[in-house]
Design a protein that fits this description.
The complex is a heterodimer. Chain A is mostly beta strands. Helices cover 11% and strands 35% of the residues of chain A. Chain A contains four helices and 13 strands. Classes of the chains: A mainly beta, B mainly beta. Chain A: InterPro entries: Fumarylacetoacetase-like_C, Fumarylacetoacetase_C_sf, HPA_isomer/decarb_N.
Chain lengths: 222, 260
């Protein structure tokens, strides 16, 4: 766990919140093992050993035999920082519980399927940088109007307009708050572009949201 | 020695319990109270809960009961501290569901930071053991990151405790009787010897993926015998030589009160 991470206690991420990804996978999701498309937000945790900060190195993962993995990928999301205890709130009041916004990068092994919890792919040490800072909620008029871009070695690889999310920021806060009570400082990464960006050892990755900042990290292992 | 966290006489205390059931605070104060006293409010026993790993399908008989092939690799999911609650506390059953069941599980509590831990060294990283009840709301299963957070990560659905027993006081964690009683009737009766993946294996496996830290916990799965729970039911999960964990089920309305 990296010192001075911006996350307090919990970082919960929303998978499969990109409408175009859901459309592309519709056929797959009607077959085994899924059998039908998700009816609820698909959630996973980035646990505390993954938390990292702006400017820091992200470790290149190792296989079980101790050699470097052949591929990693990155997605980036708006991070919604909870401001006060949030338990069973409505969609209409959900944004009142937000203290501010930040950026979450999610470095993982390539996403192969969504059937079982992806502990091997998602729980890698230092793989969840959060930052560079938390901007106050009142500086962002409409979080669903933002766009998350990823640049690798100064070349833009991905742009995800949050308007293309299946579920809005307010809807997610509300739905999640009916599953679990959220506490001040906990962060929800609300959605990632369906196509994760491949990265290589030594790459410099910048995730940017206008008005929120740029989160910069370098892959280790070069 | 056993270790727990309680509220007693208006104070939140970290306590040690010796073989004579004598309670001493970490400041050395001896508390003149019996372990079964209603004056003690039990908290979940891990003071700074870290990552809580839980195993699905880790007993061959339970895997069969659920019509699955036993897994070739551990099925691990993560729960968060919002799920934790203590001995003799309540868990809630959501309204309008068909099937909520308990899962009595041995929990290994990590005591030391480690990465790439070898199986033969694994026990050095285990501080002790406790018992948890890993409730599941089966109605909410969907085939995405299954078992998903909506099934497993709800507030109060991971009672744990009452205490942690030091590792050196448990001769063989891989051969302990495990039982669950619902309203006084035994519904689950197994042995940790039936685990597919034992504690040393799991410590090695997880630490190859990620660094384990003190306060992390591994809930090791449950044998067959899961039955539905209803508000008003009392469930007691027991693992011999560790502890007995009692939980009362309440309705969603009773649990959330004003927030219902």
């Amino acid at each position: 766990m990296t010192a001075n991470t911006l996350v307090h206690s919990k970082l919960v991420c929303v998978a499969l919140n990109d409408k175009s990804q859901l459309t592309a996978l519709e056929g797959t999701f009607n077959e085994a093992p899924y059998k039908k498309p998700p009816t609820q937000p698909v959630l996973y945790y980035k646990p505390r050993n993954t938390w990292n900060v702006d400017g820091a190195e992200v470790e290149w993962a190792k296989d079980f035999d101790g050699s470097d993995v052949t591929a990693m990928a990155v997605g980036a999301s708006l991070g919604v920082v909870i401001g006060r205890e949030t338990c069973r709130v409505s969609q209409a009041e959900a944004l009142d519980y937000v203290r501010g916004y930040t950026i979450v990068s999610d470095f993982s092994l390539p996403e192969e399927n969504y059937f079982r919890p992806d502990i091997k792919g998602k729980c890698l040490d230092t793989s969840a940088p959060v930052g560079p800072e938390i901007v106050p909620a009142d500086t962002i008029a409409n979080p669903d109007a933002l766009t998350v871009t990823i640049r690798v070695n100064e070349e833009q690889k991905s742009a995800f307009a949050l308007a293309d999310m299946q579920r809005s920021v307010a809807e997610l806060i509300s739905t999640i708050s009916w599953i679990m009570t959220l506490q001040p400082g906990e962060i929800i990464a609300v959605g990632f572009a369906g196509d994760r960006v491949p990265v290589a050892q030594g790459d410099r990755v910048e995730a940017t949201i206008e008005g929120v900042g740029t989160l910069t990290n370098t892959l280790g292992g070069a | 020695m056993r270790h727990a966290r309680i509220i007693f006489d208006g104070r939140e205390l970290d306590i040690d319990i010796d073989t004579n059931d004598r309670i001493t605070t970490t400041d050395g104060e001896v508390l003149d109270v019996a372990l079964d006293s209603n004056d003690i409010t039990w908290l979940a026993p891990v003071k700074d809960p870290g990552t809580i790993f839980a195993l699905g399908l880790n007993y061959a008989d339970h895997a069969t009961e659920l019509s699955f092939e036993p897994p070739k690799e551990p099925l691990v999911f993560i729960k968060h501290a919002n799920t934790l609650t203590g001995h003799k506390q309540v868990s809630y059953r959501p309204d309008n569901i068909e099937f909520q069941h308990y899962e009595c599980e041995l929990v290994a509590v990590i005591g030391k930071t480690g990465k790439n831990i070898r199986r033969e060294d694994a026990m050095d990283y285990v501080a002790g053991y406790t018992v948890c009840n890993d409730f599941a709301i089966r109605d909410y299963l969907e085939n995405y990151y299954r078992p998903n957070l909506r099934v497993k990560s709800r507030d109060s659905l991971l009672p744990m405790g009452p205490w942690i027993v030091d590792r050196e006081d448990v001769a063989d964690a891989n051969n302990l009787r495990l039982t669950t009683e619902v309203n006084g009737k035994i519904t689950q009766d197994g042995s940790t010897s039936d685990m597919i993946f034992d504690v040393p294996f799991l410590v090695e496996y997880l630490s190859k993926i990620m660094t384990l830290n003190p306060g992390d916990m591994i809930a090791t799965g449950t044998p067959h015998g899961v039955v539905d729970m209803q508000p008003g039911d009392t469930v007691i999960c027991t693992i011999e030589n560790i502890c007995s964990l009692e939980t009362r089920i309440v309705s969603e309305k009773e649990y959330f009160g004003d927030k219902y």
